[in-house]
Amino acid sequence: MKSCYTNQRIAVLGLGSSGEAAALRLLEEGARVTVLDSGDSEKIHAAAATLRAAGARVLLGGEAASDATIYDLGVLSPGIDPAVPLVRDFCARSISMIGELEFSYSLCACPVVAITGTNGKTTTTQLVERMLNACGVRTVAAGNIGPAFAARVRESANLDLMTLEVSSFQLETIREFRPAISVWLNFQADHLDRYASMEEYYAAKLRIFENQTAEDFAIVKLEDKLPPLKAQRITFSAYAQGGDLDLREGVIHFHGQPVLRLADTQLRGLHNAENLMAALAVGAVRGLDFAPMVEALRTYKALPHRCELVGTLEGVDYVNDSKATNLDALEKALLSETRPVVLIAGGKDKGFEFDSLTEIVASKVKNVVLIGEMAGRIAGFWASRVPCEQAATLAEAVRLARSHAQAGDVVLFSPGTSSFDMFKSYADRGGQFRQLVQSLIHPVS
User: Fold this and answer.
1) Segment 33-62 mean pLDDT
2) Secondary structure (3-state) at 331
3) CA atoms of 293 and 298, how far apart (whole Å)
4) % residues pLDDT > 70 (the chain)
5) What's the rounded mean pLDDT across residues 401-429?
6) Are residues 214 and 315 in contact, defined by beta-carbon separation less than 8 angstroms?
7) Cα distance between the two ends of the chain
8) Confidence of residue 421 (pLDDT cuts 50, 70, 90)
9) Neighbours of 233 (CB within 10 A)
10) Which whole-number Å values give the CA distances from 257 to 26, 266, 281, 292, 323, in the listed order?
């Protein structure tokens, strides 16, 4: 069967993992593919070599910026800001643009469950994947979680559902993308270095519901005041009663019936209770029995860098929450702690303020050690309520935190913002924290 992309001149903008996967898939579909990226790194050149060997034309750096070819379609990688000159040039030439999510959906042979939210997307996506497969529903996880949707869409003909983590960046460019089940975990301040306002970020997130119909389901947080939805709404909350799923004395209930005791899982914190609820709701709308769903969820362990206990020294627990790249994630980490906290926070300036956390920091934290671009500004908000120090490096921050912690305390590394001022990624940041703690616990003689 001839693909709608066969012999089409298609440009893929951005040579990250999503762009590379989209280009390879387009080549399989018979398209005439050109990949453009203004970068010039070693990683980009390696990906370019792979794509050239597969038959794509690849333009990098100045070549990409000066390309005047007229294309039938442009496919935009989610990591590329639509405001950059390369994308603006395509728009000025009236070249039709879609994102990698929309392109991959056009090839998907099975229904989609799409999971979004400021925080908790990856954990919930993995919970859903594990739970569905344990119950005999064939699925794989893809999208923002990695690998890219385009890299896994060829498997869709043999699946019952495709489980996708989707970000606001991916949703910006959809046209027909329609999840049979959408999951809205939460919405908090983030990405104000990309969006002009919270309203713009919110509008991008809301597009997950745009094409759903009354046949579809929307699993949403009870407290979030969403606009009217066409899909059937299922609600959850670990903080309030009245949803289809709620939390009562540490037990998740569905329509008033006990389903899963949080203490029986490997996850901690009310935010993870909501991730579990969202996963259970996906199974419920699929008509699955709770017993096998619960059994699968009980054995799931949190991914690294998400409230991860990395070691105990002198009676002090050291917790790596480097994935906390926004204020809501930091707040959830603090709420999950019942012991006195020595907090290490700070990082890249993403455009939001830390004053909203002053009260919870004052109530939970005994000392704060701050790093990165935001250190001075955060201290300005918090120093009148809790002792704050600034450290030039993460190693210095760990040393200072250790000096303030006593047996029974927790040293919590929960930055509350992104890592790119000092580190390659949140994983690099968390890995360095883990190594520093391990070197204290197991010093080299």
Assistant:
1) 93
2) helix
3) 9
4) 98
5) 94
6) no
7) 67
8) confident
9) 17
10) 48, 22, 14, 16, 33
What CA–CA distance (Å, rounded) separates 86 from 91? Answer: 9
How far apart CA 93 and CA 74 sit, in angstroms, is 11
**Angle formed by the axes of helices 270-285 and 327-335, nearest 10°:** 100
The β-bridge relationship of strands 245-248 and 251-254 is antiparallel
User: Do the beta carbons of residue 156 and residue 141 sit within 8 Å?
Assistant: no
Domain range list for the chain: 9-95, 103-298, 308-439
Residue tagged 């996708």 (tokens)? 164
How far from the centroid of its chain's Cα atoms is residue 64's Cα? Answer: 29
Contact 34, 69 (CB under 8 A): yes
Q: What is the DSSP letter of 192?
A: T
Indicate the pTM of the whole model: 0.78
In CATH terms, is domain 308-439 a member of 3.40.470.10? no
Query: Residue 192: what pLDDT?
Result: 65
- Report the CATH fold assignment for 9-95: Rossmann fold (3.40.50)
> What's the CATH number of domain 103-298, 3.40.1190.10, 3.40.50.620, 3.90.25.10, 3.10.450.50?
3.40.1190.10
Please name which of 189, 183, 286 lies closest in space to residue 236, comparing C-alpha atoms.
183
Full strand arrangement of the beta sheet holding 9-13: 57-60, 32-37, 9-13, 73-76, 97-99
What average pLDDT score do residues 51-65 get?
95
